[in-house]
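User: I've been trying to design a sequence by hand for this structure and keep getting stuck. Would you show me what you'd pick, starting by listing the structure so we're on the same page?

Assistant: Good idea, let's start from the same input. This is the structure you sent:
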């Protein structure tokens, strides 16, 4: 597949592979609260995944005032990503980045 675009709030960051796009979405954008259950999740792919794996389509439509076209679009995005992504690698990389950020935060605190 070609370049992947972030697509969150008009962010036009582009990536050679989907893994980097998901990592960007997770680390560079704010987390969002699911309107169905209140769970806080990373914006982008992980928010879509949460919505469609944890809730019914009807719950999604009601909570987000979505129509069937919006549902299909998000399901297609989810499917396209899952065909290309190595989600284990993505999660491992996100964990590494978060661990590094935690260490740097701890090291920069005065004793």
């Amino acid at each position: 597949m070609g370049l992947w675009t972030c697509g969150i709030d008009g962010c036009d960051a582009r990536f050679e592979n989907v893994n980097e796009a998901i990592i960007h979405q997770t680390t560079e954008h704010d987390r969002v609260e699911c309107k169905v259950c209140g769970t806080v999740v990373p914006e982008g792919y992980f928010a879509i995944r949460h919505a469609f794996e944890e809730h019914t389509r009807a719950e999604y439509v009601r909570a987000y005032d979505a129509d069937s076209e919006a549902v299909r679009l998000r399901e297609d995005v989810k499917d396209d990503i899952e065909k290309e992504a190595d989600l284990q690698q993505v999660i491992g990389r996100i964990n590494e980045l978060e661990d590094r950020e935690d260490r740097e935060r701890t090291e920069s605190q005065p004793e």
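That's my pick for every position. To get oriented when you compare it with your attempt: DSSP finds five helices and four strands in the chain. The chain has one domain: 4-108.
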